[in-house]
Design a protein that fits this description.
mainly alpha; binds zinc ion; two-stranded antiparallel ribbon; single chain; 311 residues
Amino acid sequence: MKVGNLERIKAVKDVVWMTSSELVRLKYFEVLAKQVQNGNNKEAISHFLNPKRYIEYWFKNQVDSVDSMADTEYYKTYNSEFYYVSQKIHNCQSLGEIERYVNNYMEEVDDIHYKVNLKNLERHLNTSEEPHIQLRLHIEKRLKDYCKPKPKFFQNPSDDESIMKMLGCTETCYWCGALCWGSRGHDRNTDETKKHHTAHQPGGLHGERYTQADILVAVSCHQKTDDLMVLCWNKPTRWGVAKIRDFSDWKFESHYKDQLNNFMCWFFEKLNQDLAKRLNCVPASNNELSKYGCINLNYDNIINSLKVKLV
Ligand SMILES: [Zn+2]
Ligand SMILES: [Zn+2]
């Protein structure tokens, strides 16, 4: 099993888009963008309203289904090992020899599926065969039962921490829903690096709105001025105060990883109307979209330039 698990993890790590969290996220957003281009906004909207849940669900599904090559390798290794062990047992000439061989082998591979117990053997004995031949036949039969283990016996690659690291931190900004760009588990650090940080995105993607008129906003957190009034736990508060007092575990300045910014603006341009319908509010105005660069964006240009930068 260990060999199979390691092979599956290796197969996932060999996937091209698994080499960085930027590429993982680009792959994910491309899947959503294709649906949006085909007029299906449902999944993309569900993502932006609940990013952590949706990206983790997608990622786990993806990595857990990258298994065909690993399984082939596993069966190859398993079959040759099975043949080798069967031959060794077949050549044993006494009960003691079989017992020693099998128990040593199990210790060596650090996995216990079968342990020879001579006392239990009595119930398998009959009078027509030598005891060691009966034991050999019994072991061979049991080994055959394990000869074709189903993939469900494998550990899922997503159970492995080094695989989940490739997704990065999936905490999301309370205001705009942007996914943190930190490494997985960085919030357990004790210094400044524990703060979540991201390239913030148009707030309307996560349902942020101008409260009085209930209109979605296109402004991103890093573009807000400190004297802007925001509704913080139902209390009107200045942004400059709220971000330090109530969201001190996040950074809100602009981020060096800004490659996906235009892509997120493209999403907001496309989803604005349907998001407003879903949230029963008013879509962002053209002026608002234009002010924050969420208008007339060309998908092909965005994707091509992202691929040049990231791949
Ligand atoms: Zn934000
Ligand atoms: Zn984080």
